[in-house]
Amino acid sequence: MIREIIPVSSLEDALDAIHDGTCLIAGGTEVNRLGSPRENDAVIPIDRLLPREIIREGRRLTIGAGCTLQDLCDSTEAPVVIRSAAKRAASRTLRTMATVGGNIASRRDDSYLNAVLTSYGAILTVLKTEGARRVEIEEYLLHPQGIILEATVSDVTMPAAFRRISRSSQGPCALVCAVGYDLAAQRWRAAASATSLGTQRLFWVEALLQEPQIPEAEAITRAAGGEWSPAPDVAGSREYKQYLLGVCIRECAEEIRRTGS
Amino acid sequence: MKLKINGVEKEVQAYPGEVLQRVLQREGYRSVRDSDDREGFAGSDTVLLDGKPAYANLVLAAQAEGREITTAESLGNPRKLSVVQQAMVDSGVVQSGYNAPAAALLITELLHRRPGASREEIIDALSGLLSRATGYMQYIQAAELAQARLQDPSYTVSATEEFCDDLVHVGKVREKVDARKLVTGQRAFVEDMVEPGSCVLRMLRSPHAHAYITDIDTGAAEALPGVYLVITWENCPDIYYGQAGQGFPEPSPYDRRMFNRKLRHVGDRVAAVVAENEEIADKAIQLIRVSYEVLPPVMTIDEALKPGAPAVQGGEVTYVSGAPEDLDAYNRDSDPREGKIIYQFPIGADPKRNIAASVSGSVGDIEAGFAEADTVIEREYVTSQVQCTPLEPHVVYAKMVDDKVVIHASTQVPFHLRRIVAKALGISENRVRVIKERIGGGYGSKQDILLEDVAAYAAYTTGRGVYFRFSRVDEFTANSTRHPMKISVKLGATTEGKLTAVQMRVRANTGPFGNHCLTVPMNACSKSLPLVECPHMSFEVVTCYSNIPPTGAYQGYGAPKGSYAMMTALAELAVELGMDPLELVQRNRIRKGSVLEILKCLGEGREGAAATVESCGLDEALAQGAELIDWGRKEESGDPDIRIGKGFAMVQQGSGLPGLDQSCADIHMLGDGSFMLHSGGADLGTGLDTVSVKFAAEVLCVDMDQVSVISGDTDITPFDTGAYASSGTYFSGGAAMLAARDLKEKILEAASRMLGEPASSLELRRPGTIAGKTSSVSFLDIARFTQSGTGSGELAGYGCFTTEHSSFPYGAHFCQVAVNVKTGEVAVQKYYALQDCGTPVNPDLALGQIYGGVLKTIGHSLYEEMCFNEEGRCINPTLRDYGVPMITDLPQDFRAKLVFTDDPHGPFGAKSVAEISCNGASPAIAQAIHDAAGVWMRRWPFTPEQVLKALGKISQ
Fold it and tell me: Do residues B254 and B242 lie in contact, with contact meaning Cβ atoms separated by under 8 Å?
């Protein structure tokens, strides 16, 4: 059980209050849940302090960290792929509770949102002791520090697709992967979330996708053998997940090529 | 702190970090329950926060300060239901009812937010709610009904077909008698009965799958202030018993004490602490020091039966009757640390070789049958260990009232529970009272005595009230599960598709104890072999002990596994013969009038008897199902990677256990001519109490509200073997019918005296009047007459239902699946379950039972699996990781249909319905996958990875 609540009146105060044995709490779906690594911590509630707007300016989309996943699902400003990823991330009850910032920061192994936002090249604005800083999402996922204020996608018209494979609709995922195509830079972006690896940007997949032809699924799977090695778990074996990565990356790339979205 | 709950600001006490659900429960908001220990999955803890759904278990009470909290208590009360609550009651969706209030809240929120919500939006709104009982379909219907009534309050269209034009209540949609209480979140479950000041019981469980306790030191725990008792193998009663709630003498062995020196599975009982509160109990648990001698675990059937395997139950064996002559020699090397095993009679056990039970039998000449065949196939099918996952975990509250142990229980077997607890405590049955409360889901697992014995002993020893509730992890480590099995089926047939020989060999894994070890695996044979007519049949059953978590009863008992093996083998045979599987089945299946000879050998621990099929709806079920699914038409997806296939299965179950089960009831005429029915039956949410009331009201020609029912209270109601083996409607309902008939005779006799006319000339007329040739008397008149100073005394009827007749329900399940041959994913697009349950007494509730049974088995076939590490620990003990189906897993087109037959032996022609619904999904889906992708799935679950392996896309 959470042992203490540390009230704060500003995000700066919250930042000051972070130390070993404390953690931030917004929606609470990760911190309070069964088996949470933070369940004996003192918590610093910040849900009422975070920005909650979803703003579209031209092609740029800014998602406040205090938005719930359901806010994102309901937003007509966000692209369909991001809305779908938010929707499929959890039941409606969880979606009305969980915040976008909390979902990113909890770095779940099976995160949909992190994979999709990585494929969009999202930039996070993070409050640190030295002030607000902008960091690429994959950088944040590797070195999480500070309080996420917002996530920005610079081009929501960018074609993207994602896949999720699991036995049941809400059971553990064997794989979540997402692929985007940066029209301005003419570069592919790819990411995957899986057990033991979390969400990773797959530079080696992006290199394969830069070839004139979309690589065969088998080629991606073969390459995954040396590059991407998720742990086996109840959702499936390592070989199965590597196989799926090949199939799903190719499907996403084909979808983007076929539909342009 | 101050919380605003349902519009009222309240001052409440909360510990720092305490979650909202606990605070609300303490404040009396009973509708906010807990099914998942903060997993954020099952939704029994749903509230609205500022109008939006939230799991109260994932919200700190402090986070809710200043926000509007809405609970289901705000919606309505039993006397005045909200539109949504009424629609749920009218749709038959309120069955076990544990999270029915949460569902009402979610649907209310949806219809407020989105008037005119689509089916997709209803599914999304309910996506955070687990329902194991009714398979979700009727939630959708309830939401649609509520939506229609909100637009037009006079809207009355029912989605449910009614039956029996000549009857008033039976076959009609009527409110389930406890539905109002459940949907509004009233005091109903064991947790609601706990009195202030009661103690809690916490269990220290084994970290090892197989070990001896070499030393246990409870001194520090006992010295902790607030600890009242610590129970271990050293101080518990030295009495052996079994946990299976079966009729005495049980075929299951007595192979355990309350606590054992030998631990036989991860999660086995090491010590129990009874303390003032949870915090003290948890601290005490940590203070217990235990030393173990760890033994190599035996996990699988093959490991257990391997020569020289460590014996899981290596204790001294005794028999109450029928002991073998060489028993002394057998026991010579028994290790006293292993304890003992007591058999009531021989069941083919050899525990030193890990054989818990074995039996075989045959009709005809099996070898001659195979010799006659033009084609012979033999296939093996493997089923996995799956969990019941009731929303209300196993729970008990025991207390002392004078010299009596009173047990508030969530049990399917109140009378077996009384017997077993009395035995375990070494006291007589008159000193134990079991009160069955409403059951928030059982599905067979509450047929076993998993925690009541310890709680009762703790209450008896300390004199205090003791509350013991399983955590969800406890459910995954210490609850009864479906037996894993390996079933080999060998079939012989002529070129024309006529079966000449059928052989079934079952290897089952009972785990650490032998509860149901003979009967579940036998049931795999007895509910599948009799589906076909064949002169030569044989079966063999061997059940082994192992160190997996316990197994036991689960809805369908052994039938879902036997049906999977038998029906899939028939489909494989059809392919070998180049025949349509449906045609093969039609040429060999049983029909009305068929004599089921094989049942002579399948008596489940006693001598069996051949049975004649006296009612059978298979003709219609198969015909209707084939038409609905458009059998024989090949469907195309338009995507070469998505292959469509169809499959079907015919299914069978029983209606209780003829010659073994017994149900009794009595009914009393009260002072105003209304009635009080006492039923020994245990309604576990399926609507048995409603069945009983309907039968009594039908016989006595009164409205249902003139009959009240008390059931499953061992001090008040007469004996009943309990709710298992599909016996509820048939046996317990039958007893209510007989009691009402008995009372009717007495009413007529009394009226005869009052009217001066012979009883034979009197007629019972609705509502509650006895009409003679010239005058009549009402039930009120009769009650006053019989209960006056000169009267004959209160009129009461008594019924005891036993039978030698078997009334088999039948059914046919058809499905269509889409198999993605690139990813291995299987989507069930269509599922049609057509069930013959004789007369459908509660048609709406029966449909819910069918939907629930089917979806459970879709889960078992495609998603669910208990996974273990090398040490025997379950590594996925949460609802999400285990893979229970949610509303988002529903087949796109899911229909249950009732096929009417009038059984000559069932009460008002009724047969059972709930268990049989579990028997069709596995074989139908396996066959459909083959039809789609050309591969046979011979192992549960048919996961995408297994499909890919079968397709050769990844290595085996």
Answer: yes
Which pLDDT tens digit goes with each residue over B78-105?
A: 999 999 999 999 999 999 999 999 999 9
Cβ–Cβ gap B36/A2 under 8 Å:
no
Domain B83-191 CATH assignment equals 1.10.150.120 = yes
> How many other C-beta atoms lie within 10 A of the C-beta of residue A77?
16
Closest C-alpha among A95, A68, A148, A43 to residue B61: A43
A243 in contact with B, Cβ within 8 Å: yes
Mean pLDDT score, A69-78: 97
Q: Is A76 helix (H, G, I), strand (E, B) or coil?
A: coil
Q: Do B58 and A165 touch (CB under 8 A)?
A: no
The dotted CATH code for B663-801 is 3.30.365.10
CB contact under 8 A, B886 and A91: yes
Asked whether the ipTM of the predicted complex exceeds the cut of 0.95, the reply is yes
Q: List the one residue out of A152, A259, A255 whose CA is nearest residue A209.
A: A255
Q: What is the pLDDT of residues B524-552, one digit of tens each?
A: 999 999 999 999 999 999 999 999 999 99
Which fold would CATH assign to domain B194-295+391-441+445-478?
Aldehyde Oxidoreductase; domain 3 (3.90.1170)
**Residue-level pLDDT at A8:** 96
For position A35, what pLDDT does the model report? 85
B485-657+806-950 is classed in which CATH architecture? 2-Layer Sandwich (3.30)
Whether the CB-CB separation of B861 and B926 falls below 8 Å is answered with: yes
**Domains in chain A, please, with CATH?**
54-153 (3.30.465.10), 160-259 (3.30.390.50)
Query: B888 to chain A: which residues are within 8 Å by CB?
Result: 91, 169-170
pLDDT beyond 60 at A261: no
Q: Which of A167, A196, A218, A251 to mutate to test the interface with B (most CBs of B within 10 A)?
A: A167
Q: Provide CATH code, domain B2-74.
A: 3.10.20.30
List the single residue in A with minimal CA-CA distance to B48: A93
First CA to last CA distance, chain B:
59
Read off the pLDDT of each residue in B391-400 and give the average, rounded to a whole number.
Answer: 98
Phi, psi of B289 (to 5 degrees): -105, 125
Question: A231-243, pLDDT tens digit by residue?
Answer: 999 999 999 999 9
